[in-house]
Amino acid sequence: MTSDVGAATEASFDLELTPEQELVQRTARDFATSRLLPLAAKIDQDAAIPKEILAELGALGFMGVCIPQEHGGAGLDMVCTSSRSKRSIARAPRRA
Predict the structure, then answer these.
(1) I want to staple 76 with a disulfide (CB 3.0 to 4.6 A). Which of 28, 46, 65, 86 is the partner?
(2) Separation CA 22–CA 53 (nearest Å)
């Protein structure tokens, strides 16, 4: 009996980000660096995100990212959403 291990690797995935996905990634990174990082300790201390930060996130389209545009969301795909979430979690300060 022979095993055809190579058959499972024949299907390939395009792991390159689309221009839209790259823009979302860059925008999220820039916002986190310029607006969230300076406030991170206070946000942790207060256990609250300032309303103006939430408003800015909404204006950038980061609220309701998976909700279709016709229903008021950003209409982004799951790659954008999961990429953004993974990075947020990975970079979040750890509490003792």
Answers:
(1) 65
(2) 22
pLDDT at 38: 94
Query: Residue 27 in contact with residue 84, Cβ under 8 Å?
Result: no
Higher-confidence position of 10 and 31: 31
The total number of residues written for the chain in this structure: 96
Best CATH choice for the domain 18-91 from the list 3.40.50.980, 1.10.10.10, 3.20.20.70, 1.10.540.10: 1.10.540.10
pTM greater than 0.85 (yes/no): no
Please say whether the beta carbons of 39 and 53 come within 8 A: yes
Quote the CA–CA distance of 82 and 78 in Å, as a whole number. Answer: 6
Q: Which two tokens stand for residue 30?
A: 């820039």
Residue of 27, 15, 26 whose CA lies nearest to 79:
15
Where exactly are the structural domains of the chain?
A: 18-91
